[in-house]
Amino acid sequence: MDDISVLIPWLALNRIPELGPVSQRMLLEKAGGMQSLFSLSPAVLHTLLAHEQATLWLDYREGRADSALRQHAMRDLEKSLEAGAVIVHAEDQDYPALLAQTHSAPTLLYVRGEVGNLHLPQLALVGSRNASPGGLDLAKEFSMALAMHGLAITSGLALGIDGAAHRGAIHAGGKTIAVIATGIDETYPRRHTKLADDIIASGGTVISEFAPQSPPAAQNFPRRNRIISGLSLGTLVIEAGLQSGSLITARYANEQGREVFALPGSVRSVFHRGCHALIRQGAKLVETTQDIVDELAGLLAFKQRECEVINTLGNKTASLSEEAVRLFRLIDHAPVTLDALINRCQLPVDVIAAALMDLEMEGVVVQQHGFYTRL
Known about the structure:
375 residues, alpha/beta, Rossmann fold, Arc Repressor Mutant, subunit A, 3 domains, 13% strand, globular
């Protein structure tokens, strides 16, 4: 999380009309990052944006008092702070790496609760809003068991399966993340206001990509779904009709290269037709939580290792070079030689030597008898 002065440009960028997440990321890539976006000449900027968009950004960049983007940005910041939210942008080290890998990842996330949860290994658990009593029980049971296996449970705070999934994780003492389709200062549906508060009180997280005071517009929900799947190693669907929004989440998961799981049910039940369709299309049929844990074992171990890196380094990443952090990820608790690190890292020897010295000075790596070990 950066200071307020760094956040304002991101909030302004997010308010340029008709410039969605994909276009924002393309613009940043072509410009060379947010800082470079401030140094582009007006002529170049007009080649990258529509005339009206470029004019709005130039007005903001030049510090004009009547800049519409600045006014929107300051209002969004104020409302976020009033809601107790923090803002994470695409170049922030707190931005979740798994979500960043997806094609249409948002450039901004508004976050209430524990920001660090975004880096946890997650499983999306979604399903029908009009779930059967049996489906609600299964969602809670699966959520509890998966949380006990170390997975954070991610869902959409909707009625039905989503709500049961969040409650199951809380009941198990695990972490749960709710991705909402409104501004971070709103809760939809209203009856889940207490559930959202319970999620945060239990150490969980509520996030949104939408500016504060954004209403629950219909087009927001599919966008919300791509974040649910994008944060997660896999998506489990429990009870879904053929027109269920949960199938959109599953489709996103498939497009993002994530695992899709579906719980089967009675062939006579309309509640399970969506799940059966997913299974026919290649989703993995699930009968127990162990089916999911076994399937995700390799990814789960890798993600847990990533979390260990983040927890060990903590705020030290701000003072470490990118090469040092990269190197630290390759050093385990088992001793490793310098030659092995050179082969793994594929960096110049002098760069590796400097990075190792930095890690030793930070007290996270020790060298003994020519071997390097993580502390």
